[in-house]
Amino acid sequence: MNNKPSLAGLSPEDILSMTGIKERYRGRQIFEWLKRGAESFEQMTNLPAALREKLADSFCIFSTTVETAEVDDDGTAKIALRMHDDCLIEAVLLIDENERRTACLSSQVGCAMGCSFCRTGMMGFRRNLSSVEIIEQFMHLQSLYGEISNIVYMGMGEPLMNTGEVIKSLEYFTSEKGLGMSARRITVSTCGITEGIKRLADEAPPVRLAVSLVSADPETRTEIMPVTRTSSLDSLKTALMHYQQTGGRRITLECAIIGGVNDRREGASLIAAWSEGLSVNVNVIPWNPASEIDFREPTMKNLEAFCRELERKKIPYTRRYRRGRGLNAACGQLAVNLDKNKS
Ligand code: SF4
């Protein structure tokens, strides 16, 4: 276990105040090295050797260490990170057919939301991640696999149950003092925490929003997504209207389609009616099987009827490709064995 303070994820100013270095330009130099994926102070060749040594004695680059790194045949990479308190989390690099490289980041160790179709939900909840622990996932992926253009908060955990730290990490990714990425290239995905959506709209950089809707039928949704009991479909719609009225862009409605649960044409009609007045794109995702979960994949026939109904109602939709299944890195499949989380 490494107890030295880490510098990854800090702005040049924060590096100066953390290390006590007086020369302002040194903060920027160290920041640039970290941004480029340096893994040791030894690599920072434009710093005097004595300073590199001093830094190495008192600080480390990352507070997390890469425990495993695997790459699937389709290029998807999954890493498991060990945290300072021995907890384990996962992060994924997705490469789509246009070669767009997206980091999928976790925001919590486990998840308390209990969606019944999700492997992470079965882990239970251990703790929230700090903004630095979120940022380090991106930096590890980038230093292992090269430059990354996009970020989605769709790994382990519900980002909007950890809104404060998620907003801090968004500020780092988008601000000029941080990585200076465009907020348009970042998507926060939620199961529908209405308070968090409002806070994101009011306080965060203008990132994209994805909502795991799954079903617009209150009974079905409550059954498979217990969050519906506290954040009802009506209050969710109100929060999304607020997000769009405050400048939010088109919202992605994620719909994991599960055989015999929400794969009927009528489900698509309900989604169309519920989303009236919102600018949305429905992401139709055939549910990814997981051995521990007693659901089945939808049939191709039902999936096609579902999509045809969306089309008939003039609701834009995307049929999502399946990537990373070999690594259990596809949607709803991120989970580490909680027994390995020893804290
Ligand atoms: S789908 Fe998201 S919110 Fe639901 S249990 Fe899984 S990680 Fe948590």
TrEMBL record:
Superkingdom of the organism of origin: Bacteria
Subcellular locations according to the entry: Cytoplasm
Cofactor or coenzyme needed: [4Fe-4S] cluster
UniProt keyword list: 4Fe-4S, Cytoplasm, Disulfide bond, Iron, Iron-sulfur, Metal-binding, Methyltransferase, rRNA processing, S-adenosyl-L-methionine, Transferase, tRNA processing
InterPro entries assigned: Aldolase_TIM, Methyltransferase_A, RlmN_N, RNA_MTrfase_RlmN, rRNA_lsu_MTrfase_RlmN/Cfr, rSAM, rSAM_sf
An MF annotation (GO) of this entry: metal ion binding
SUPFAM superfamilies the record matches: Radical SAM enzymes (SSF102114)
Residue ranges of domain Radical SAM core in the record: 97-325
The keyword Protein biosynthesis belongs to this UniProt entry's keyword annotation: no
The EC number(s) this enzyme carries: 2.1.1.192
Alphabetized CDD domains for the sequence: Radical_SAM
GO biological process: rRNA base methylation; tRNA methylation
Transmembrane stretches, start-end: none
Family the UniProt entry places it in: Belongs to the radical SAM superfamily. RlmN family.
Family annotation (PANTHER family): 23S RRNA METHYLTRANSFERASE, RADICAL SAM CORE DOMAIN-CONTAINING PROTEIN
Protein name: 23S rRNA (Adenine(2503)-C(2))-methyltransferase RlmN
